[in-house]
Amino acid sequence: MNSASLLAAVDLGSNSFRLSVGRVVELSNGIRQIYSIDRLKETVRLAAGLNENLVLDDIAISRAEAVLKMFGERIKDFPPQNVRAVATNTFRVAKNANKLLQVSEAALGFPIEVISGQEEARLIFSGVAHELPPSKENRLVIDIGGGSTEFIIGKGLEPQIMTSLHMGCVSFSKAFFPKRELSEKAFAQAELAASKEIEVIRKSYTSIGWKQAFGSSGTAKALVAVLEDTGYSEKGITLEGMLKLRKTMIKYGMNYSSHVLGLKTDRTEVLPAGLSIMIAIFKSLGIKQMHQGEGALRVGVLYDMLGRQADTDKRDETVDLFMHRYHIDKRQAYRVESLALNLFDDMGEGFEEDRKYLTWAAKLHEIGLSISQSSYHKHTAYVLENADLPGFSKDEQKNLALISLMHHGSLNKVDLDTLDASKIRAILSLRLAVLFSRSRQDLGLREIQLTHKKEKSFVLEVPKDWISNHPLTKYSLNLEADQWMNAGYNLKIKGY
């Protein structure tokens, strides 16, 4: 099968790494469906390598590298646009995450996006929802990962409320079951710690409510299998069944429980912690029964890729939402966007990724005005880098924030020599578009053109008669040229 017709999602969790390969099929009604054709899962226990200072040890990094080399072999012939790799909690919290990311990307052979807890929750819900029958009722989805647990309530394919809490089966195993000893005290301490985390969200979730609850994690899958096999639960996960399971595990210990329950050793070692978290969730939220959700983060990633390729990019929806939320002057935003893209395109093709960032930055560059006119570009950049932007990875938010920050004021806020040519083009295009649009009026301007002559040299051609009738713009353009000269670049303003 031609790899160009396949999509691959890589989920770098704190406990396990997973690879899913899906084939896109268009149904008779025009809806496109993804059918799984290959899956790989390896336990890495990445979070177990974090010390008290949140530094990840070399052994854990080596485990990650070895697994990703195997994954890389499987997808090495895939087009880059058909692969998306996302990393979660351990990549978010590790102090030496840059080293981990560098090693991991080299091993996999593809870029890796570190996503926020909110984005992780959104993708998890999407994955679960796509694998379930359509419903107009609220659904609660819980995903207990290795280092974090996601809580989502949504309807259909759309999440309504999402939260990621810092508790997971690997981090709790390390904290409460370090010697693999199962005792009443250890379980009680783990449940109490989880309950304290959940208390922060309890009221908001129970007030919204849900019709059905689903667990999408390896913990949920293991609990469903064990509870049904032992007869502790007739179907799915119940509090009564989990309390019976806890009693059994305390009575027989870790090793015997692994044998009796028929679990793999790697799952048994984190099950007590996962069980403790799930019991706390049931008690805190008043859940009666939980079913297993077949989809998960990796399925959500596959459908997100499918949406991007079909021009239904979640990031575009988020940008539109933020334009509304921050009361942005849309006519001005679209005016700036149009001119910025024209200038960017004048300099050549082949820079589609930064063209997208330029589009989003142009639409959102005035967000900061809702905070203060003074240094508004800095406020804009702060919001874009730190807000929860559904669909965007952390690195994507940083790129968006960078271009937005640089659209106004001094160029010495960053070292331009550390940026690639495409980023420089995007920044220059946006700065000029904002400069020309200062009057917030349609320009009535004949064609202007921006040319990238050589590495650090640009030429902006403007009609002579127009520029002579707009002295403020002419003055501002000269100041802009000086700014670029001070930064080591040549921007020539040429009349024609």
TrEMBL record:
This is Exopolyphosphatase. Pfam families: Ppx-GppA, Ppx-GppA_III. PANTHER family: EXOPOLYPHOSPHATASE. It comes from the Bacteria. One of its GO terms (biological process) is polyphosphate catabolic process. One of its GO terms (molecular function) is exopolyphosphatase activity. Residues 31-308 form the Ppx/GppA phosphatase N-terminal domain. InterPro entries: ATPase_NBD, GppA/Ppx_hydrolase, Ppx_GppA_C, Ppx_GppA_N, PyroPPase_GppA_Ppx.
